[in-house]
Amino acid sequence: MDALISLYRAVVEPFTDNVLWGVHTFIVLLGVGLLFTIWSKFIQWRALTHGVTVVRGVYDDRRDPGAINHFQALSTALSATVGLGNIGGVALAIGVGGPGACFWMWVVGILGMAIKSVEVTLAMLFRDTSDPDNPRGGAMYVVTRGWGDRVGGIAKPISWAIGAIFCVTLLVSTMTGGNMFQVWNVANITNTYFGVHQIVVGITLATLTGLVIIGGIRRIGAVAGRVVPLMCALYILACLVVVAMNLGRVPELLAFIVRDAFTPTAAGGAFLGSTAWFGLTVGLRRALFSNEAGQGSSPIAHSAAKTDEPVREGVVAGLEPFIDTCIVCTLTALVILATGTWNREALGSFRGAIDLTHHVETDEKGEERRFARVESAATLDALPPLPAPDQWLPGNRFFVLIEVDEADHRTLSTRRKLVGEVVRSPEAADRGTDREFRLSWDDAPHGARLVGDEVFSEFVGAALTGHAFDRAVPGLGKYLVTLACWLFAFSTMIAWSYYGEQGVVFLFGRWMILPYKFLFCALAIVASVPQFIASDAQLGLLADLGTGVMLFANVPIILLMSPLAIRAFRDYFARLREGRMDPPHAAPPITEVVEGRDVE
Length: 600
Fold this sequence. Notes:
The chain is an alpha+beta fold and 600 residues long.
């Protein structure tokens, strides 16, 4: 495990931060979103109007090719997008990039509606329906069937190679953002609130996921159709409770988000400070991870929908970024901002019981290592008491603020967190007792200086959002947000397991499905190892890795084939205006739509 962690930090982190998410990435994505918005004559409006009508089931027809209805296809795709990116991802964005990051999430949400509509329409145009009850689609079929088969000759093997590259990136994203990111967040918040060991959480999630994904897309669609509306309703209700308590401040907070996007707030409390550019990049990353626009994942779920009109499913897909980013992410941001969690105050002071000492060590090769180390009280009894409900309990993490000589190249801030965790002291271990604990601190850069002696609670990802709810209504974060995290993570994992399965089928055939599912569940357990992710920055990089590689593979495909989607838009909406697309029947009962009985 240590070797895997070292490899990740030495190779994956620099590649993700500098290559996958350079300036070029943001320019291309925003440009593609604007292009599709203008070219499609603002397809976002069609998604919010016609798309809602389609989801209601008035166009559902059991005779159409596909496995699930429009509502279940949307639910399956939303189960992958409305997840811990909305709870943990928003917390990460605001915690490190400031409130202005939320503004850039809105931008991606609106532009993402156009991108999602185009890529799903393309997937529907070129999906494989040779088995009408088990259709397959996605960027790999768009490029092979839409370009390779139509052009022929050398284009066929080239198109397969491009599709294979997309599938490899799909599998990377499946295992990282669609699996390990989810498990780590749930394990972290469950351990923070209830003391359940992270490995136990990982095993439980892996088992529950395995029981569902063995049944294929029909079982996944059935579970998603029930779980997604429930989990969204629970979480949105909790958010509305907190927002209602601060209703008078909502206009002020929304204005603050816009203002901070261009004039960032200075460091204060637990917030380390940021720049406008860093807030923009963090907001775009987290929004793209959350709504998956341009990533090419959602088209795989939508390709299973029962319909003979590709555009009809495309406008349904356009609803995803709106629901995910413009509604759910915004509510999470308002909760975090209204409660002051992002720049929360200190828990208290160490009152002189802590200091930084500087060291120089020489290793076996004669190379010097310079660092600073915290010197604090040997046992927790000597530390000051914390205000309720915070306690010096094993596994809880805290931090102090330090000043370093070299500013961070992204935030331009010289302020850093120095994190400590409550662990069992060696003396207690020798005596066979668990009554004595101590703080184990990370090492600091040589020359670092303490900024006061105040101690802050350390919350990463979903745990920060949970703490925000608890600040408003004690216990709300502990119980409801933890439950929402479990539901969100579970639904995301079952949807992403299906995405990865389709990539495996394209690359290797159906014989690899079962080994792939075992590997998916095994990596869920690996991600729950406490030392696997050590900070919010590393957690963000894990999510960025999968999102970034898929964007690099998928965006060129949808750009190449986009004229076909735009042509399909014009044809479909022309027929709609002429009255040739009237619904064939009235809307079925909502229970039949949710359960998929209207197309059985």
